[in-house]
Design brief:
Number of helices: 3
Distance between the termini: 33 Å
Mean pLDDT: 84
Largest sheet: none
Oligomer: single chain
Structural class: mainly alpha
Order of helices and strands: HHH
Helix content: 55-70%
Number of strands: 0
Low-confidence stretches: none
Shape: extended
Strand content: under 5%
Length: 88
């Protein structure tokens, strides 16, 4: 079941709008727009979560971030691109 939708006007640079129409045809722009807004909302929520966690536990160092990236890269390589059960 799909969620209810509404119509909204969003100004978009012409070159970006044209590029969005190429893969999806006439429906490409609305689909890209909705996906972009959804991604930004997710990022905003994630940033709020990160800020709350860092306020409670302290900031994550660049070395810690790199170590986790290395762990993820290694796990992906071992599993042929599929990662399951990794502790990050």
């Amino acid at each position: 079941m799909s969620e209810p939708t509404g119509e909204y006007a969003i100004a978009t640079p012409c070159d970006i709008a044209a590029a969005a129409r190429v893969p999806g045809g006439p429906s490409g722009l609305p689909l890209y727009g909705a996906a972009g807004v959804a991604r930004q909302v997710e990022r905003d929520h994630l940033n709020a979560l990160i800020q709350a966690a860092e306020a409670e536990h302290g900031a994550i160092s660049d070395d810690e971030v790199q170590a986790l990236r290395d762990q993820l890269h290694h796990a992906r390589a071992e599993q042929g691109g599929r990662v399951t059960g990794i502790k990050i």
